[in-house]
Amino acid sequence: MPLKLDPNFAEPGQRYFRDFSPGDDFYQLLIDAHRDLTDEQSSLLNAKLVLLLANQIGDLAVIREALQRAREDVAS
Amino acid sequence: MLKTYAYPKFEYRRPPELDGPGAGRRPVIVVGAGPVGMAAAIDLALQGVPVLLLDEDDTVSIGSRGVCYAKRTLEILDRLGIGDAVCGKGVSWDVGRTFFRDREVYRFNLRPQADHKRPGMINLQQYYLEEMLVERCVAVGVEMRWKNKVVAVHDAGSHVVLEAETPEGRYAIDCDWLIVADGARSPIRHMLGLDVEGKIFTDRFLIADVVMQAEFPAERWFWFDPPFHPNQSVLLHKQADNVWRIDFQLGWDADPEEEKAPERVVPRIQAMLGKERPFELEWVSVYTFRCRRMQKFRHGRLLFAGDAAHQVSPFGARGANSGVQDTDNLAWKLALVLGGQAPEALLDTYSDERVFAADENILNSTRSTDFITPKSAASRIFRNAALQLAGRHAFARRLVNSGRLSVPSIYTGSALSSPDVDAFAGDLVPGAPLDDAPLEVDGEPSWLLDQLGGRFQLLVYVERAADFDADLAAELNATIPVETVLVTAAPGGRPRLRVLHDARGRFLERYDALPGSAWLVRPDQHVAARWRRLEPRAVRAALARATCN
């Protein structure tokens, strides 16, 4: 399974009338999860989130590609 | 300042109530001659309701203020009779471009589909819109009183008693219903001690209107963290008369008075445009904003609309647009209640539907604000990560939020809508505003939305006009008139019926129409109900439901 790079957020049973809504729902969840945390706590949360989602994906080929994509433009 | 525009001064006239009883109780008084109050007044006047409009000032909006008017608002202004004037003067645009630092990362087009009468957005200084609305108010017979400031309001249960102050003294006047459109600071809301809840954002923005000759296209350009204004955001918009709106994020610590000084503003603009480009400053303002709304928009005989009822951040142009959409929802309901054709409960659905819309607008504009002005290091790093990924990947472009531009609310779950009993594809569910489509009327090109609105209508799709069973329309026989309008696949008319020929098939496609499909359309052009087969009993029931009868 290749890495998905097109919009893919959705919630089962939920009808969206605007294409930006599911992504915005996700983004708000993400930002809300960090509310009132220190920078260090936020970094820890992010690390745990990566581990949880990586386990959910499982497929190391996908994870390998995601890691490559994530690294692009970072150390330039 | 303001070199391109000369402010009109509207004449104060001595109100007859200063010298006697005047014309007695008014059915409707509107307070506030801004875009929202005037749209309400015009709409009611077009429905045959006499309207008195009071405003404390005697001119239009000072400064350009509201700038972007969305497609749905333009469709409403068409119905009110000033769509052409607004679009003729305004600058229409569909394309928005988003930059991160020195690179473009994302571009959107508001009107991906062809064959709509109105563009995604037009930009027009608020004073021009107001001038056009004033002219239209006068033309449709709205009585306007300038320099009439409401200083006391009492809801007596059976009517409302107002007191207004003029340059020549005070007078009292009664009305059945009061529409409160007196703006974000709403003196009337304060007088009555009504709550408005929400949050204030700790950020300041500078808006500068600049006159210049520039070859930039009429597009919305948005920068995150640009080299000429590091760590902040900047927005550029074109308005009429070669006036450009530039909006700089300043941060909470900026001093609003100092930042307004030309010696501070000019270098910021030069950093953006380059020193060699000549421009003149037309208007400058520093603002903060909040997102909040009243718990409900109807309080007895008072109906709150626009900024008086709800406020949003400016990202997304959801302020003036949603205010005009409030009046679109309110006017027909109030006209029916005044005409004794619907119970007062119909006005509670104004509050229900527009509170729903306000929550949607507040949600979207709050999210935009949180993306544009991150309030924590974690939030900033996610934003920058999304912007960096957006340069390469579609999923991240969708996450970039520089403002989710005003679109009308779909009143899903409204008590006025009849739930679907038949299957239809697409988003035109009960509660949705109609989608426009090009059509022909007697061989002449027209638009669907130009043929609809201001009354209940039943749209029926048939192959040929002759296929329609006229007995069905006769059986409707409703106490509230419903006009039957045929949309046909083939050309050809039908006596005493409005026939719209779907020559390009856009109606068919957008409405998922089949021969016999029918839509009950509200006076504000929202879907009340739809069916695959027309049954007069179902139409009567849906009409009763849509009017709280």
Short description:
By secondary structure, chain A is mostly helical. In chain A, 58% of the residues lie in helices and 0% in strands.
Molecular structure report:
- The complex is a heterodimer of chains A (76) and B (549).
- Chain A is mainly alpha-helical.
- Helix content of chain A is 58%, strand content 0%.
- Chain A is built from 3 helices and no strands.
- Chain A is globular and about 40 Å long.
- The two termini of chain A are 29 Å apart.
- The mean pLDDT of chain A is 95.
- By secondary structure, chain B is an alpha+beta fold.
- Helices cover 28% and strands 27% of the residues of chain B.
- In chain B, α1 packs parallel to α4.
- The model of chain B has no long low-confidence stretch (mean pLDDT 94).
- The chains are: A mainly alpha (76), B alpha+beta (549).
- The interface between A and B is medium-sized, with 28 and 25 residues.
Which CATH class of the domain at 16-90 and 121-195 and 290-366 in chain B is shown?
Alpha Beta
Overall pLDDT metric of chain A: 95
Class inferred from helices and paired strands of chain B: alpha+beta
Instruction: Please name the two chains that share the biggest interface, counting residues whose Cβ lies under 8 Å from a Cβ on the partner chain.
Output: A-B, 28 and 25 residues
Feature tags:
heterodimer; A: 76 residues; mainly alpha; 3 helices; 0% strand; B: 549 residues; alpha+beta; FAD/NAD(P)-binding domain; Glutaredoxin; 8-stranded mixed β-sheet; 7-stranded mixed β-sheet; 28 strands
Please give the structural blueprint:
The complex is a heterodimer of chains A (76) and B (549).
Chain A: H1 21-33, H2 39-57, H3 60-71
Chain B: E1 26-31, H1 35-46, E2 51-54, E3 68-70, H2 71-80, H3 83-89, E4 91-93, E5 95-100, E6 103-109, E7 121-123, H4 126-139, E8 143-145, E9 149-155, E10 160-166, E11 169-180, H5 187-191, E12 196-200, E13 205-211, E14 220-224, E15 233-238, E16 243-249, H6 256-259, H7 262-273, E17 280-287, E18 290-294, E19 298-299, E20 302-304, E21 310-311, H8 319-338, H9 345-372, H10 377-390, H11 394-399, E22 438-441, E23 444-447, E24 456-462, H12 470-476, E25 482-488, E26 498-501, H13 506-511, E27 518-521, E28 527-531, H14 536-546
Parallel strand pairs in B: 1-2, 1-11, 2-8, 5-14, 11-20, 24-25, 25-26
Antiparallel strand pairs in B: 3-7, 4-7, 5-6, 9-10, 10-11, 12-18, 13-16, 13-17, 14-15, 15-16, 18-21, 19-20, 22-23, 24-27, 27-28
Helix pairs in contact in B: 1-4, 1-8, 2-3, 8-9, 12-14
